[in-house]
Write a structure and sequence with these properties.
Length: about 160
């Protein structure tokens, strides 16, 4: 379960810092991702969900593992929050490293990033390294939006 929590937290952190639905999409895929990370690290999951396009697809290491459709990102947030509460986790933050893949082709992008997740479990700090997040985005009229992402847990 802790692995599930870490992956979910890392992804949430990565995408939660988008300022508002109107400004959630950046002018580049990495601007959208970086804004989402700032939002997640601030605990602003609503803004994170606003970075998603509709429909979206999410794969993560905590149940039910797959979210898809028009409400995939907000459904994922609800599942994350339930897991965090059940496992008594707090202070979830994620840090992404330099992309290992940053492929932009026209109005679609595929970005792979190493990730480190930090959180407290029962008040004790935990650092999870070696995770990888893969994010697909598309350019919309308002900027780049996430259409899907998958989290692969590390150590």
């Amino acid at each position: 379960m802790k692995k599930f929590t870490l992956a979910g937290a890392a992804i949430a952190v990565a995408f939660a810092l988008i300022p508002s639905p109107s400004t959630a999409a950046g002018s580049t895929p990495m601007q959208t991702i970086n804004a989402a990370v700032r939002a997640f690290n601030a605990g602003d999951y609503k803004t994170w969900a606003a970075a998603c396009d509709s429909p979206a697809q999410i794969i993560d290491d905590f149940p039910p593992h797959v979210w898809s459709g028009a409400t995939a990102c907000s459904d994922w947030v609800a599942a994350l929050q339930a897991m965090v509460e059940k496992q008594k986790l707090s202070n979830l933050t994620v840090a992404f490293g330099t992309p290992t893949t940053n492929a932009v082709t026209g109005n679609v992008a595929y970005i792979v990033l190493p990730a480190t997740l930090h959180y407290n479990a029962n008040g004790k700090p935990v650092k999870r390294t070696g995770a990888v997040v893969t994010i697909a985005l598309k350019k919309t009229a308002s900027g780049w939006r996430m259409t899907g992402w998958a989290w692969a847990d590390g150590k």
